[in-house]
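Notes from hallway chat w/ T.B., transcribed later so I don't forget. T.B. wanted the structure written out for a chain they're using in a teaching module, and asked if we could keep both sequence and structure tokens in one place. Agreed to drop them here.
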Amino acid sequence: MTLNIKKQLGKRIKELRLARGYSQEQFAEKLGIASRTLCGIEIGKNFLKADTLENILNILEVTPQELFLINHLQPQEVLVDEIINTVKEIKDRQKIETLYKIVKSFV
């Protein structure tokens, strides 16, 4: 799998921005950058400067670890395969039953 860090990080920034209720314009203003610059970051066209990264962490109130948590942004097929493989490794019957209940609640 090819990891496009600019694209993945941009998606994650957008995800966190939206979760905090910021429009792209509001967030860009808080960061002190142009909306088009933020747009470029979020679509993976541009990479952010260290100062912008630090501001993003502060404004969104996340740690670097939280910001770079991007595994869930992989294509759906990859996620499904990873879930299936992880479930196959679970040996505890009670955990399997709990997981089953959780999964069925989404369907």
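Follow-up for T.B.: Helices lie at 5-19, 24-31, 35-42, 50-60, 64-67, 76-88, 93-105. Might be a good example for the class.
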